[in-house]
Amino acid sequence: QQPVQSPQAVILREGEDAVINCSSSKALYSVHWYRQKHGEAPVFLMILLKGGEQKGHDKISASFNEKKQQSSLYLTASQLSYSGTYFCGTELAGAGSYQLTFGKGTKLSVIP
Amino acid sequence: DSGVTQTPKHLITATGQRVTLRCSPRSGDLSVYWYQQSLDQGLQFLIQYYNGEERAKGNILERFSAQQFPDLHSELNLSSLELGDSALYFCASSVGGTGNEQFFGPGTRLTVL
């Protein structure tokens, strides 16, 4: 049930773009994206609900492909502040499903 | 600052002992979630409470228990501690349940010696 994230790690230079993928083998109700910096708590980025929606947050956006049960997080024109570990969390479709299951994370390092 | 508070920040104890971690959710949030984060396991969902009632249970050991009180604060009790229980324990809160963003507290770092 744990979603699979790829890549596990990526190194970018400032200004470069990156895509982080999250896929599930089960039907999803929602996908959550969080960023965690070393030694800190995860911070919410965005939620995508089933329906194939796409959302944007400054230069960070995400999409959710309901047919493939996949979500992608797009980081454009990366900044040093984007460094951290990105987690996707998934909620399964179905009544009473309140559990958020996180992937193992993607470590993003942005260098000057 | 997410508005979620957790105490204590650090806890060092010995194997076999029992500890209690405390969480106060953001004002207005009815749901509280507990997560365990260790290096090799990532963020593991333990349990969720909504307005005092248990709503979902994840990979929570029988030695662990939790409750949410009428004032909505929550406690996570860990007993018969083992070395492998050493981890960061996060509490998060949200307004409702499904489909709501979760706000994480700063965490409690538990070290079992």
Polypeptide structure, described:
The complex is a heterodimer of chains A (112) and B (113). Chain A is mainly β and 112 residues long. Chain A has strands at residues 4-6, 9-13, 18-23, 28-36, 43-49, 54-57, 60-65, 70-75, 84-92, 101-102, 106-111. Chain A is built from no helices and 11 strands. In chain A, strand 6 (54-57) and strand 7 form a beta hairpin. The model of chain A has no long low-confidence stretch (mean pLDDT 89). In chain B, strand 5 and strand 6 form a beta hairpin. Chain B is built from no helices and 11 strands. Chain A binds chain B through residues 29-30, 32, 34, 40-44, 47, 49, 87, 89, 91, 97-105, and chain B through 2, 31, 33, 35, 42-45, 48, 50, 55-58, 90, 97-107.
Strand content of chain B: over 45%
Oligomer: heterodimer
Total count of strands of chain B = 11
Helical segment count of chain A: 0
N-end to C-end Cα span of chain B:
31 Å
**Helix amount of chain B, in percent?**
under 10%
What is the element string of chain B, with H for helices and E for strands?
A: EEEEEEEEEEE
User: What portion of the residues of chain A fall into strands of 2 or more residues?
Assistant: over 45%
Classification by helices and strands of chain A: mainly beta
Radius of gyration of chain B: 13 Å
Average predicted local confidence, pLDDT of chain B? 93
Q: Can you count the helices of chain B?
A: 0
What characterizes the major β-sheet of chain B? 7 strands, mixed
Shape of chain B: globular
Shape descriptor of chain A reads globular
Enumerate the spans of chain B where pLDDT stays under 50 for 5 or more consecutive residues.
none
What value does the Rg of chain A take, in angstroms? 13 Å
**In sequence order, what are the helices and strands of chain A, one letter per element?**
EEEEEEEEEEE
